[in-house]
Amino acid sequence: MPLISTDHLFLVFAFFIIAALPALPAALYALTSTAAEPLHVPSNRDDDPRYFSNSFMALLKNDLSSHQVTQLLQRTGHENAIMDKYIFVRDTSFLKPVSELKQEKTDQRICLFNDLARLPEETLWLGDAYTPKDFEVGKKAILRTLRCDGKLLLHPESRIIRWVDATWIYAMGPLTLPGRTSARQRISLSIGIQFERLFAPLIEVFELDASTPHEPIVIPSPPGNTERWSHQHDDTQNQQRKVFDDHLYIDDNTSLSGDIVCHGDLYLGKNCRCEGNLKVDGNLYVDYGTAIEGHVFCLGDVHMGNDCQINGMTSVLNQFHSGLNCVVGSEKQPITLAAGEINLSAGSRVYGQIIARKKGLTTYA
């Protein structure tokens, strides 16, 4: 009689097969990996930028029905209606001056602006607020949070402390936007706006008018020992990844296909077209009129000249500087632009989300 039966051998064999399954993907990757493998840049979205706004609206809809609100407003006539959790506002008598900011505590009640279309200058409300209509926040006025289901105009030096969400936001500098600023249609920014995180189908910086003097962005020249890639090497049919161990300069009017990995600084000349992802260990310099049809991952700084475009996720460890009229993303392909510091010049447009881990600023150039 055998020491191990056929049934026992089958169970042992099945056990080893199941135990080896977790290592199967790694083994297949090692066997099939080649030097020409495309460069994959992580492009996962961050958590929902409108989480607080959506949660706030769910709370309102859960607590109040339109019938209850109508009855309450009819009973209170033209006066402000004050409840345990809500204040239905018809005038500004409950507001405090900004000078009392240090003495004022957070108000747990939710302020519902009904007939009030504007928060007066230098007034204060340290609570959550909602308005279903177009609204203005006056100069140097302060709100804690605001959900606006119309167009929102933020005047210079106004301040919303935590988050703001509206259908369309117009921000006039100088002012500082809260950590989470979102809009369901568009965010329009003037020069002198500081920000951290913006989310909208379109984020735009106002263009300069013809009377405003400005100089074109100058991209620095590469060092003398930099490897050069000219338009004579055009290989738009070659999809292989290209790896460069030092600085690289791509001549003007050059078209490239396939991913590029550069272990030094990468210089893209004027009117170039890159159809692939870029991974740069140093700095990335993009000159006038160049388009990048892919994701960008940079461990240094990114400097873009005027009228450039990036149609992909853009992740920068240090600083991102856009030239005049630059575009990141597209209406059909919204993206995330993330960097330590972000400077957006006049006329710039970003489709999707902006995350400035340290600070963001809109500038002339």
Instruction: Determine the mean pLDDT.
Output: 81
Low-confidence stretches: 33-38, 41-46
The biggest sheet, with number of strands, parallel, antiparallel or mixed sense and barrel status, is: 29 strands, mixed
Number of strands: 29
Gap between N and C termini, in Å? Answer: 88 Å
Q: SS-based structural class? A: mainly beta
As a percent range, the share of helical residues equals: 10-25%
Strand residue content: 35-45%
Q: Which geometry do the CA atoms define? A: flat
How many H/I helical runs?
4
The radius of gyration over CA amounts to 27 Å
Helices and strands in order:
Layout: H1 6-20, H2 24-32, H3 51-63, H4 66-76, E1 81-82, E2 86-89, E3 96-97, E4 110-113, E5 118-119, E6 123-131, E7 135-137, E8 142-154, E9 159-171, E10 175-176, E11 180-189, E12 193-205, E13 227-229, E14 242-244, E15 248-250, E16 255-257, E17 260-262, E18 266-268, E19 273-275, E20 278-280, E21 284-286, E22 291-292, E23 296-298, E24 302-304, E25 309-310, E26 314-321, E27 327-328, E28 335-345, E29 349-363
Parallel strand pairs: 2-4, 4-6, 5-7, 6-8, 7-8, 8-9, 9-11, 10-12, 11-12, 13-15, 14-17, 15-18, 16-19, 17-20, 18-21, 19-22, 20-23, 21-24, 22-25, 23-26, 24-26, 25-27, 26-28, 27-29, 28-29
Antiparallel strand pairs: 1-2, 3-6, 12-29
